[in-house]
């Protein structure tokens, strides 16, 4: 369990526990930036996010991670696995076959990787993942990419429920989210609800 995430559990039928994981935007930002050292690009480090790709390999096939990372960031061409000093190493390479330090990955790329990781952890045994303000730091195509993973029966075998909050109406796309699964809250100052 990460200290950076709130994990709530409630008893179900006095035998099993149903897992609820809540991820706030501020917690994701904190995880990404907490160990980000200010300095030149070569001296920057995001030790707090170095765990992401090794953790993702535990949950997803390597080819899937590589193709997803390449889809998220068009500058990335491949991920190389290797062994150095008896430790497994992971190198991300760009289109010029140059190694990319994790400190140079964008906020949006890291956020999608964090969301994938948390989804995989919850989906392993089933449960509910609540994501607050999913649109912060992500464009619509990255959100859709993540939601396609959630909708995949291969990646979501235990029918894990994902609840998202958003202020962006573009996320409510009939191709991605069934309008019957959308619940809207309106401030009393609104005269009528928006038709979806």
Radius of gyration: 18 Å
Main beta sheet strand tally, sense and closure: 4 strands, mixed
Q: Number of helical runs?
A: 5
Coarse morphology: globular
Taking strands numbered 1, 2, ... along the chain, how are they ordered across the largest sheet?
1-2-6-7
Strand content: 15-25%
Structural class: alpha/beta
Which spans have pLDDT < 50 for at least 5 consecutive residues? 1-16, 35-48
How many beta-strand segments? 7
Could you state the order of secondary-structure elements as H and E? EEHHHEEEHEHE
Mean pLDDT: 75
Structure description:
The protein is an alpha/beta fold. Helices cover 30% and strands 22% of the residues. The protein is built from five helices and seven strands; from the N terminus they run E-E-H-H-H-E-E-E-H-E-H-E. The protein has helices at residues 25-33, 52-59, 62-72, 107-125, 140-151; strands at residues 6-12, 16-23, 76-84, 87-94, 99-100, 127-131, 161-164. Strand 6, helix 5 (140-151) and strand 7 form a beta-alpha-beta unit. Helix 2 packs parallel to helix 4 and helix 4 packs parallel to helix 5. The N and C termini lie far apart (38 Å).
């Amino acid at each position: 369990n990460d200290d950076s995430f709130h994990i709530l559990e409630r008893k179900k039928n006095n035998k099993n526990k149903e897992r609820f994981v809540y991820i706030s935007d501020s917690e994701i930002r904190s995880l990404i930036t907490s160990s980000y050292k200010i300095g030149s690009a070569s001296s920057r480090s995001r030790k707090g996010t170095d765990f992401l790709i090794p953790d993702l390999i535990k949950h997803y096939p390597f080819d899937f991670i590589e193709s997803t990372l390449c889809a998220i960031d068009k500058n990335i061409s491949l991920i190389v696995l290797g062994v150095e000093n008896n430790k497994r190493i992971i190198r991300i390479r760009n289109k010029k076959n140059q190694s990319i330090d994790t400190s140079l990955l964008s906020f949006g790329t890291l956020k999608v990787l964090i969301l994938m990781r948390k989804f995989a952890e919850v989906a392993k045994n089933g449960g509910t993942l609540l994501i607050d303000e999913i649109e912060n730091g992500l464009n619509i195509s990255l959100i859709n990419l993540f939601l396609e993973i959630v909708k995949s029966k291969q990646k979501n075998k235990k029918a894990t429920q994902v609840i998202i909050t958003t202020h962006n109406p573009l996320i409510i796309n009939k191709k991605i989210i069934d309008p019957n699964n959308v619940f809207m809250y309106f401030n009393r100052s609104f005269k009528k609800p928006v038709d979806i």
